[in-house]
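Let us work through a complete example step by step.
Step 1: write down the sequence.
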Amino acid sequence: MRRHLVHFFWGTLIFLVGSMAVFFVAVWNGWVGYMPDMEELSNPVDKLASQVYSSDGQFIGTWNQDNANRVAIDYNSLSPHLVHALVATEDERFYEHSGIDFIALGRAIVKRGVMQQASAGGGSTITQQLAKQVYSEKARNTLERLLQKPIEWIIAVKLERHFTKEEILAMYFNYFDFLHNAVGIQRAANIYFNKEPRHLSVTEAATLVGLCKNPSLFNPLRYPDRCRNRRNVVLMQMKKCGYITQEEFKELIQRPLGIVYTRAKPIDGSADYFQSFLRQYMMAEKPERENYQEWRMREFVLDSVAWESDPLYGWCNKNQKRNGENYNINTDGLRIFTTIDTRMQQYAEQAVRKHVGGYLQAEFNKANRYKKNAPFSNNITRKTIKDILNRSCKQSVRYRTLKEQGATDEEIIRSFRTPHVMTLFTYHGNVDTLMTPIDSIRYYKSFLRAAFMSMDIHTGAVKAYVGGIDYEHFKYDMVMVGRRQVGSAIKPYLYALAMQNGMTPCSTAPNVQRTYGGWTPRNTSRARYGQQVTLRWGLQQSNNWISAYLINLLGPSQFVNILHDFGFYNPDIDRFTSPVLCLGSSELSVGEMCSAYTTFANRGVRCAPLFVTKIEDSHGNVIAKFQPLMNEVISEESAFKMLDMLQAVINGGTGGRLRSRFNIGGQIGGKTGTTNDNSDGWFMGFTPQLVSGCWVGGEDRDIHFDNTSMGQGATMALPIWAYYMKLVYADKRLGYSPSVKFDIPANFNPCQTADSISVNGIQEIYF
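Step 2: predict the structure and record it as tokens.
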């Protein structure tokens, strides 16, 4: 009997040991549970957010899959106090073990498991905690957590084999979520103390390490006393391990937390609209016709052109990593170097805010004060307004959420007509109020929208990008995504076509109203009616009759072709080829317009917008470089002629306010644009160094000023350009000056031409 018991005991022991050995072998090889492969273990930093930098060397934001703002830093960027605090508190024998501390593990099993001592401490090492952070999903029950433990042990051992102790410490700090959108030690130091990690003091380091135990429980903003007590526990551990003296400990525990909280936005940093656009642009997939509804055909065409012509569009899905997978800007820890200048970006945002928020919106509110349909025009019916509001309701997040929850149409209508507590945008700060969702939609439609972009004339480098008046509340981007009718801002392209056909600024045209195939264009002014006027005067005064005369002479098809050369691929241009195109009925973006206007100051060569100069991987290797994309649109001679006329617009035409009101000196070319019913106000302006474009209007075309004096481009958009350029010129660091001249030969005569020219077979004689 005794012998049988001994045999049973040893058999059981051998079985258990053998089973455990088989189990650990299975876990090691990934047969049981999840085990990352060697490539993933070798490059865990690739799970980090991409970092976005400006052209002036500023860190402006991060992109991460879960909208965290994690940034990778190396060990040398850590304060020694951080390292000492973490090791002393979480893993005293960190430098002695190889991933698993069997002494601490045994202590935890005996004291916590057997003796039920809650204060006995845990057995997890820093490396095990890192493995849990990076590779373990949250366990749903105790059994699942017990299975995760051996997996984490093995991952910890593998991590110790592949990385130095310093690298493991850096990865631990990089991955930990310190709350309040402070993911990783870089952002935690920025957000809680407004410092870089290397500059953290002993107490600041101890505070952040204290959060590693439970950031919610020891939240420094919500529970400062509790956080301070936890910090002091960390300091005590540092004293026990010899990192600080007894005297230092006594002095340090008396110090306040010293929190200098800086709120981090979901899209952190400068140029929110730009970052949002660029992120989607780089991650775009190859356009496939079946993925676009019929009403999105324009988008399909434009995306297809971008996919073929722009290496940056869909870059992540056009390029692969060494393992054959496509890049992912949310997880690959890329460093993206953009063309944005943070100083110019700030000036652009200030200019939009000053004009739209400081003046234009107040005037718009005043004009709508007694309108029963406000903010809509009185020219539309109540049914049309109802249709617009209903459409906006169905496009809202609230509507989609209710639909997903299975709410009926009646319940949804009731919800939109029931007051809710909500936070509303105002130019004086957000306010909390009680309002029905349908009323809030109408409220937000009462705000005029704006978009502004500034780019380098010769390279296309985008220096400033303002897609709207406030990203938090108005996320739709009106620089590159949204498109509106451009009005008279399109006329320079028609005049450029005329110059290509041999005309000059001094060529004349009859200033009379004519009918062309059932179309009779109108004009806001009858100045010099019945006279032969020069093309310079026609563009300077934005005369519609002269434009109609030119497109009738040159032909709409020729105009469409040159619009393509200027970078406009909106299929509506081809679909509705007609003389009306010359008055700006086409819907184009601010970005497209800025790109096209580079042609006039760049010797006839158009520069496409350049958003990124280079991309580095997480190890600092340059994996992509981007050069300006250019194409010749018109000849140098034609470009010089256009410069003559576009400067005339500023010096004595519709853009004259830049001189008379804003007193901006130097050489400037430009053009205003105003669409029917004052729905859209445009100004495109350029200097020898910069081209900048601006659009202002309502969310819907039926939201606008009723009078042209307020609704024209010269009033709505031009001042933004003026405010921006004044700030740019004032900042001598930027290198922009009004003394720089256009690159026009000294002896160039814009009016020199042959006595006669032939356009489409029509002989025109000029005297």
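Step 3: interpret the result. The CA atoms of residues 43 and 404 lie 39 Å apart.
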